[in-house]
Amino acid sequence: MKCLVTGGAGFIGSHLIDRLLEDGHEVTALGHLSPVRVKNLAQHCDSPRLHLHEVDITDWEAIRPCFHGVDWVFHAAASVVTRESVEEPRKYFQVNVDGTTNVFEAARMAGARKFIYLASGSCYGHPDVISTPETTEIRLDHPYALTKYLGEQAVLFLGKIYHLPVISLRLFYVYGPRTRPWNVLSVWMKQKIAGEPLTIVGDGEQRTDLVYISDTVEAIIMAAKSDLNNEILNVGSGESHTMNEFAKALGGGIKYIPKRPHESDYIHADISKIKRLLGWKPKVSFEEGMKIIVDNIDYWR
After folding, report:
1. What are phi and psi of 100, to 5 degrees?
2. Integer-rounded Cα radius of gyration of the chain
3. Could you report how far apart the first and last alpha carbons of the chain are, in Å?
4. Confidence of residue 261 (pLDDT cuts 50, 70, 90)
5. Residues 6+ apart with CB under 8 A from 181
6. Beta strands in the chain (DSSP E)
7. How confident is the model at residue 121, as a pLDDT?
8. CB atoms within 10 A of CB 24
9. β-pairing, 241-242 with 207-208?
């Protein structure tokens, strides 16, 4: 297959490209190719099956030619920092809504066969249902959640209008090597290396659903290979851990700081639907994932 990955040099995008190339596909990667990001794809620098394009998804004229002959489109590019979205909502609408519409339209015009949208479990906000299924009421707490949800609804609607199969994967907390510098895991690993205590907001008893990057990539690939169309699927571990447990698994001291606004207290994905429709389930346990992180601490140096 000829595949295109937006945000291809980012955390999830680069791991997805690893897998696509391993499986023998040809891959076009779009995105911002800063030296830090390109490092994520350095192992493929000599691959004739990887084509990198430094383009902004909000630039319609720039991205359109990149889609020629594409079969599968994986849309991972997004602006993702909750606090920044509150400060700069216009930027988030431009990238996560307008940019997403550009990517879909380019895929449609190129005759793509499948469109996979990487959505966010943040659309559930503070749900009443602890184990949160896809049917849970949408509660949007900040512009990031709003714009990712609008992007999802746009591609699902357009997919039906133009008969392009679309699957939206609502990702929960994905972790692993190559996480973004401002991600809590990256912050903690830097603190651990420096011999500093790991900072936790609030009392640390807020719970989150942690799903390892390889399991996430497997879900994405299985969605692309499937015959599903116009579906929304949660991608998580199906269990939750407190931030205290998360930090203690990495080792070292802990320092508590005041909780910030717009942060959920409980995130836990109901993954029964993706298990039923795709036969997917996470393979890397919390304990195994934490061991991988600690064993690869040099990555964060």
Report:
1. -65, -40
2. 19
3. 36
4. low
5. 36, 187
6. 2-6, 26-31, 50-54, 72-75, 114-120, 166-171, 173-175, 198-201, 207-208, 210-212, 231-235, 241-242, 254-257
7. 96
8. 8
9. antiparallel
- Residue 276, judged by CB atoms within 10 A of its CB (0-12, 13-18, 19+), counts as exposed
Q: How many Å apart are CA 127 and CA 243, to the nearest integer?
A: 18
Q: Are 9 and 41 in contact (CB under 8 A)?
A: yes
DSSP 8-state class, residue 57: T
The full 3-state SS of 210-246, as one line of letters, equals EEEHHHHHHHHHHHHHCCCCCEEEEECCCCCEEHHHH
Is the confidence at residue 130, as pLDDT, over 90?
no
Q: Find all residues with CB under 8 Å of 266, minimum gap 6, and list them.
A: 126, 127, 130, 206, 207, 240
Give the residue among 160, 162, 267, 285 at the shortest CA–CA distance from 205. Answer: 267
> Which SS3 state, helix, strand or coil, does residue 30 take?
strand
Rounded to an integer, what is the distance from CA 247 to the centroid of its chain? 21
293 class by beta-carbon count within 10 Å (0-12 exposed, 13-18 middle, 19+ buried): buried
Q: How many whole angstroms separate alpha carbon 203 and alpha carbon 299?
A: 29
Q: Nearest-5° angle of CA 132, CA 81, CA 220?
A: 55
3 state DSSP class of 8: coil
What is the mean predicted confidence (pLDDT) over 1-27? 97
CB 175 within 8 A of CB 210: yes
Residues in the chain: 301
Give the C-alpha distances (Å, rounded to integers) separating 267 from 79, 116, 242. 21, 23, 10
The answer to whether 152 and 122 are in contact (CB under 8 A) is no
**Token pair in block for residue 38:** 């390109």
CB–CB of 201/257 below 8 Å? yes
Q: Which helix (H) or strand (E) holds 37?
A: helix 35-38
